[in-house]
User: Fold these one by one.
Assistant:
Number 1:
Amino acid sequence: MGKIIAIANQKGGVGKTTTAINLAASFAALEYNALIIDADPQANATSGLGLNPAEYENSIYQCMMDDGEDVRDIIQETDFDYLDIVPSNIDLVGAEVEMINIEKREERMKRALDAVKDAYDFIIIDCSPSLGLITVNALTAADSVLVPVQCEYYALEGLGKLLNTIKIIQSRLNPNLMIEGILMTMYDVRLRLSNQVVSEIRTHFKDMAFESIIPRNIKLSEAPSYSLPVIAYDAESKGAVSYLNLAQEILEKNNISIF
Ligand SMILES: Nc1ncnc2c1ncn2[C@@H]1O[C@H](COP(=O)(O)OP(=O)(O)OP(=O)(O)O)[C@@H](O)[C@H]1O
Ligand SMILES: [Mg+2]
């Protein structure tokens, strides 16, 4: 049975999409079947893997509606073995409003993903920078949530609100939702501020923070413009190695054997 991990933080630009693509690609490189759900109308995960969002009529949204699409029919293969994606497109913007009156509207993504849970080892949901209905659906569908935090000014801003939302979802919608971990991203060893954020997070969140830290690495920001996960763009880069380490840390944490 696959594990569903939502990558969420309502703060923008903290590395959610970079993490979704590269964590999923790292699992794929280790020969675990991985599926990315692009749950953001910006469709950055879709375009970052070389798919054109304008070409797809359906997104996860159409799978969440009554008489909607079967998610199995809209999964796209990527150029990489073991890595598939449910693309997004701009239609997802309207979903929040259109779903206001439907029944069990928070549980729609969970229902949609039930059909594919067995076919993958990991399903990674890339959330948008919002705590709106689509993100609530992602957290309700997920087994765990991974929270990227940028090692920058105001890193912890909004984290309290996010953790509170997670608590509400645990109590009302998804009692099994775990926190997979807090992931520090865009770490710059030369910056005192970066180091302060790391020590603050380690003090505050202890075991909740991953050992693996993602450095600021130019290859990570270049890779999407070549439609590649970093491991295919420059496998030896610090960015590629750090996401592979994260994947291994998650496998170990979940007692899944690495080979
Ligand atoms: N570790 C990193 N090193 C260098 N650049 C990075 C790193 N992580 C992310 N970036 C760059 O920072 C920008 C924001 O990253 P990303 O798109 O992953 O954030 P996001 O949280 O998904 O943003 P949004 O909230 O808009 O969805 C992108 O241009 C990305 O290439
Ligand atoms: Mg994003």
Number 2:
Amino acid sequence: MAVHLLDTQYDADSYQKYRFPPSENLQSVIFSYLEEKKVDPVRLAVDVGCGSGQSTHVLAAHFEKVVGTDISEAQIEAAKQAASFPNVTYHVCPAEELPFADGSVDLITAFTAAHWFDMPRFMKEVDRVLKPHRCVALSTYTADFSMHYKDCSERLTEIFTETHDQLLKYADEKVNLVIAEYKEVFESMPFPDTKRVTQIFDKIPMSVSGVIGLFQSFSMYQAFLRSDPEAAKSLLQKTEQRFLETMGVCSNETQVEIGIRSACVLGCKGP
Ligand SMILES: C[S@@+](CC[C@H](N)C(=O)[O-])C[C@H]1O[C@@H](n2cnc3c(N)ncnc32)[C@H](O)[C@@H]1O
């Protein structure tokens, strides 16, 4: 069964504000794979589970037409409201029922979304809509985060990890696919030509308030908030205080870097 997320499980506003687009090195893994597989001409890319569109935008420069799809009307509404590109459109639909003709798509992506899908039904759709010799790239960031600021990176990373671990108690079981770095997603790929890359490192600059916003954008934080609003808000307030005290600064607009490690599963359809 697909996990049909209610719009309340993600806060589209937090998404729009605090989620960052696919990192540079992750993009480079995907586009190098497309080059290797000679995906040209590059007509249509479909970004499934596109959320508020940050991931969809990075495809715009590489494809004639890009369609972002998501099951959440609120996410698609937020995507439509955001500044975008003329060749990008959005559509509300489940990943397991893509509104594209057989053999019509050059690339399917899902950034930090595939773990929510009904995997066998989604993979069947991927196989149906892709043209022969065309590709799919399913990526996520792993649970391996770090936080960097001057000489206190180690302590900040510990605080970040403690908060992340507390939130994990509220994670849906589908998040286990992320913890396992998409091993099962890889194993369910229907194509013989596949590849899984798990050591993709990037550093994302953001403010301390941005780090707190990133936590707020996680579905597991939204679950905690629904279960115990006071405790959830207090956890993030305390986390912010601890960050600022450790850094010896007062402003939550102070810039830090968040280190992320992404995993990406790639596949190329046969003839
Ligand atoms: C973690 S967000 C990722 C959004 C975006 N790709 C990004 O990188 O910021 C996961 C998204 O998957 C969507 N989603 C979950 N289950 C889905 C399904 N079965 N079909 C389509 N979208 C789904 C959610 O609504 C949510 O917007």
Number 3:
Amino acid sequence: MDNTDGFVAALEEKDLEEGKMKRVSVEGTPVLFIRQKGKIFAIDNKCPHQGCGFSGGTLDGLVIVCPCHDWRFSLETGEYEVEPSMKLRIFEWKVQSGKIWVKLDEDTDDS
Ligand code: FES
């Protein structure tokens, strides 16, 4: 697979519908793609609290609610509403040639 500037092709852009989430394993990392209010987000599927998968959670506007303990995180900043220093991991992404590409950064902060 082509790996330009560290970006990896993850899914077809047309496969991500408005209001939906799609979990894709990108080089072994579970990435959750979300299209909400016309915007695309790519986050680590693993909740920073106790590691539950966000893909089983729900969307509330630009907030994702973890299915395990209902913690609410902003999709725009990654911040947990109650304790903003706790953040989910957000990946850079781009759309090119009809696909959504994601960049898994080097930062190996495995909390
Ligand atoms: S694991 Fe996500 S809120 Fe606890």
